[in-house]
Design a protein that fits this description.
Number of domains: 1
Number of helices: 7
Shape: globular
Strand content: under 5%
Helix content: over 70%
Structural class: mainly alpha
Radius of gyration: 16 Å
Distance between the termini: 44 Å
Largest sheet: none
Length: 118
């Protein structure tokens, strides 16, 4: 049942993204950024955690989950360090994901060369 919940919620997030790509003039980069910002807002408002508790990886792995993770990190750091935590909390909470993205992005850039679309 956990797999089904994760699939349904993660699939709904993907379907919303696909609808935004197909029906609006938003670029994929803007949609991805919007997902992260939506995750931060929903996480800060306390609305995302129930979704994550219900769907598990279907809600924590997508970009909305990354934004929620940033919001949780900032909230915790502000409670511990005050105003400085607002600037450091997101990096601390998401350091593993950001480090992996930089590392694998670098590896892929070494293995492949970009080509223009024709």
């Amino acid at each position: 049942m956990e797999y089904l919940k994760a699939f349904l919620v993660g699939g709904a997030f993907c379907a919303i993204g696909q609808i935004l790509i197909d029906k609006t003039k938003l670029t994929p980069g803007r949609i991805l950024t919007g997902y992260v910002v939506a995750g931060v807002i929903l996480g800060a408002a306390g609305l995302y955690q129930p979704i994550a508790d219900f769907a598990g990886a279907g809600a924590t792995v997508p970009l909305l989950g990354f934004g929620n993770n940033l919001a949780k990190g900032v909230k915790k750091a502000v409670e511990e360090k005050g105003l400085v935590g607002a600037f450091t909390g997101g990096f601390t909470a998401a350091a593993g994901g950001m480090a992996a993205a930089v590392f694998f992005g670098y590896i892929v850039s070494l293995l492949f060369s970009p080509k223009e679309k024709k």
